Write a sequence for this structure.
């Protein structure tokens, strides 16, 4: 089936067609011409051989026949003529006088050679002659020799004949064998060409084309096999290199598109945050002055009022005003411009300032933050006020979520500094991602108890210092949540030098 299918597809197989037209057919044509010239040469050689055989037979009996002819001994002549049949395949032998009249004969022969040009030529010149002629409807090849006496005079003519068909049949058999061999050689050459093409060229070409079709169908990860001739292997290697380059270019393009989308999203987010910051800044500014007036009036009334109920009500008013003031400060911190004041400060001093600031907000029963390990004596270059604000907001969230403790741990390596703030509260709400919790105005506290800006401010300040923030749950080996962990990481390598 494979051979038949390939044969049906043969007209489209241009490479096979070219091999046949420009290699196999010229080779077969040369072989055919060689056979043709070989047969012609063989025919000439066979004719010469036959002529030589007859000449040798004639020379062997010419002398005794000449003596017998001079003595008119017909018995001896016939005996010598019959002896030629034991030497070779002779079909006739005869002796004629110089006039062409038959003297003695055996086998197939002619009775009269008076009209034969060959006989006349032999008698006239004394040279032997030969040629084809027909006797009784049968083609004969005859060799004529002059019968010469001892004095050198021609006194007779000797004719020895063989069938012409003997040579024709031999040549026909030889020609048939030669052309049959040529046909067998042609078929064998075609088979060798087809099989050799399939093994050496056809199969690798089909594999290469199949690889191209797979790539064209969308399988960009497919690679062509490097088997086969060196030229096809080089083409396959070039195809694979092109596919690799395309894959790299496509990967780079996808990376560029992803980076462009990320930058567009970041730009959009920055534009949104800038707009929010403008609104928040305006609102905080407008709320700040009235809250200061309300707090001042409440303090004055508190000094004037002596009854406990009035003082309690005024203290409640002041408490709400302070709560609103903290919210205004958070709004102002969120809308604050990026870091502009870089200073050198020791890490223990920075942590102590943050702990002191948060201590003023602690209520009875709140967990007091404490260092789990001694703080390393590191000197940092940063904006102390902004980073203290980040630490205070992180500690405030931990205190509000903690049940009994808030732990601080400092971890440093040659590349970065990490401050861990851990609490033993309920952890992040189920199904809520840490990235969502750190978005502005997203709060896990009950409504009215938080602005949702604490972690957003922490993230904003750390980004201004080329740092990062991570929020995650603390879990036990049994996956039980035991609290929340806030990780603040500052890179040493990206810290700016103090500005004059």
């Amino acid at each position: 089936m494979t051979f038949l299918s390939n044969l049906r597809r043969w007209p489209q197989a241009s490479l096979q067609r070219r091999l046949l037209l420009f290699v196999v057919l010229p080779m077969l044509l040369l072989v055919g011409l060689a056979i043709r010239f070989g047969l012609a040469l063989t025919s000439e050689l066979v004719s010469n051989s036959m002529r030589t055989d007859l000449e040798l037979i004639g020379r062997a009996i010419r002398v005794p026949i000449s003596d017998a002819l001079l003595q008119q001994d017909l018995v001896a002549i016939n005996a010598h003529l019959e002896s030629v049949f034991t030497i070779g395949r002779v079909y006739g032998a005869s002796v004629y006088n110089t006039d062409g009249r038959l003297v003695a004969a055996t086998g197939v022969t002619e009775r009269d050679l008076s009209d034969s040009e060959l006989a006349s030529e032999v008698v006239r010149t004394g040279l032997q002659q030969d040629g084809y002629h027909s006797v009784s409807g049968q083609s004969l090849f005859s060799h004529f020799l002059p019968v010469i006496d001892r004095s050198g005079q021609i006194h007779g003519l000797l004719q020895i004949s063989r069938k012409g068909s003997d040579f024709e049949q031999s040549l026909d058999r030889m020609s048939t064998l030669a052309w049959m061999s040529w046909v067998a050689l042609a078929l064998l050459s075609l088979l060798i060409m087809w099989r050799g093409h399939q093994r050496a060229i056809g199969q690798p070409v089909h594999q290469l084309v199949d690889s191209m079709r797979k790539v064209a169908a969308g399988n960009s990860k497919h690679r062509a096999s490097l088997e086969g001739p060196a030229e096809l292997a080089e083409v396959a290697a070039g195809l694979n290199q092109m596919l690799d380059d395309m894959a790299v270019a496509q990967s780079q393009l996808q990376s560029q598109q992803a980076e462009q989308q990320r930058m567009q999203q970041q730009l959009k987010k920055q534009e949104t945050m800038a707009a929010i910051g403008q609104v928040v800044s305006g609102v905080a500014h407008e709320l700040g002055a009235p809250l200061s007036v309300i707090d001042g009036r409440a303090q004055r009334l508190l000094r004037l009022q002596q009854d406990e109920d009035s003082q309690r009500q005024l203290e409640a008013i002041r408490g709400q005003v302070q709560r609103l003031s903290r919210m205004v400060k958070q709004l102002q911190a969120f809308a604050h411009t990026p870091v502009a004041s870089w200073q050198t400060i020791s890490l223990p001093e920075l942590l102590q300032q943050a702990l002191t600031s948060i201590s003023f907000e602690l209520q009875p029963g709140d967990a007091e933050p404490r260092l789990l390990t001694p703080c390393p004596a590191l000197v940092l270059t940063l904006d102390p006020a902004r980073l203290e604000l980040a630490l205070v907001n992180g500690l405030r969230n931990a205190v509000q979520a903690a049940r009994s403790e808030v732990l601080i741990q400092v971890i440093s390596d040659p590349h970065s500094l990490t401050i861990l703030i851990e609490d033993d509260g309920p952890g992040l709400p189920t199904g809520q991602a840490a990235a969502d919790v750190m978005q502005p105005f997203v709060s896990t506290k009950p409504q009215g108890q938080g602005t949702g800006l604490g972690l957003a401010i922490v993230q904003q300040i750390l980004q201004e210092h080329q740092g990062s923030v991570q929020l995650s749950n603390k879990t036990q080996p049994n996956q039980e949540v035991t609290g929340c962990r806030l990780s603040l990481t500052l890179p040493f390598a990206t810290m700016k030098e103090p500005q004059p």
